[in-house]
Amino acid sequence: MARLEGKVAVVTGASSGIGETTARVFAREGATVVLVARREARLAKVCDDIEAAGGKADYVVADLAERANCDRVVETVIARHGRLDVLVNNAGIPDKHMPTTRTTDELWDRVIAVDLTSVFHMSRAALETMEAQGSGSIINISSIGQRGLAGAAYSSAKAGVIALTRNIAIQFAGKGIRCNATLPGPTPTELNTPEAIATFDPEMPGVTARHFDLSVPEATTEDQAAAILFFACDESKAMTGQCLTVDNGATL
């Protein structure tokens, strides 16, 4: 199928995990995909793979914790491709399940900057272009962590993403611009490998695990990308301000 034919889509955090898989799926669906992340070598490899498979890809290296970089990404996309139809705000970092009493100011500031403030800055920059076009779709990646099922900083950031999603949706309802969110559950990525988990807080993961069903299978990055694609394409053209949980029922 070609559900994104002719569209220009930006995917942040696209050098690995959910972002990388989403970029590959978007390219298969006909989009010109612009990948954004900090690691240039990884971005270049994913772009090469997409192009080798017949897709269209580009990349911009940026640390989205810096507002100027968010503006630069959108300006670069418009300069190179002339429009911006889909923005996937996927860039994020974990907080290692640090509870409130063990969250340092530095950890709080960094997680909020990447996981929430960059979503605001990227969306604000993209909305100017989308409003001029009269069309666009923004998909923000929140998390089941927004229910408090992570550390203090990550849970707070992901809850904020949902509120921001709804605020944007309310502002642009009926104007051709949609904003929705997906809420991934546990998904195998490099952020939660056994080696990464070994660096987590020794207490909080066990506490949060008592509040959802760990016996269900984990979702895959392909599962997450499918939900993101749904919000990106016209199949969801009447949906805005909605949150889609992708966790195999772990938090029902």
What would the average pLDDT be, to the nearest integer? 97
* Beta content: 15-25%
CATH topology: Rossmann fold
CATH class: Alpha Beta
Given helix and strand content, the structural type is: alpha/beta
Largest sheet: 7 strands, parallel
Compressed to H and E, one letter per element, the order equals EHEHEHEHEHEHHHE
Strand order of the largest sheet: 3-2-1-4-5-6-7
Helix coverage percent:
40-55%
Query: What is the correct CATH architecture?
Result: 3-Layer(aba) Sandwich
Structure report:
It is a single chain. The chain is of the alpha/beta class. It has a single domain (8-236), classed as NAD(P)-binding Rossmann-like Domain (Rossmann fold, 3-Layer(aba) Sandwich), CATH 3.40.50. Helices cover 44% and strands 15% of the residues. It is built from eight helices and seven strands, in the order E-H-E-H-E-H-E-H-E-H-E-H-H-H-E. The chain has helices at 17-28, 40-52, 67-81, 105-133, 152-172, 194-197, 204-209, 221-232; strands at residues 8-12, 32-37, 56-61, 86-89, 136-141, 177-184, 243-246. The protein has a seven-stranded parallel β-sheet with strand order 3-2-1-4-5-6-7, sandwiched between helices. Strand 2 (32-37), helix 2 (40-52) and strand 3 form a beta-alpha-beta unit. It is globular, with a radius of gyration of 17 Å. The model has no long low-confidence stretch (mean pLDDT 97).
Chain-wise SSE layout:
Layout: E1 8-12, H1 17-28, E2 32-37, H2 40-52, E3 56-61, H3 67-81, E4 86-89, H4 105-133, E5 136-141, H5 152-172, E6 177-184, H6 194-197, H7 204-209, H8 221-232, E7 243-246
Parallel strand pairs: 1-2, 1-4, 2-3, 4-5, 5-6, 6-7
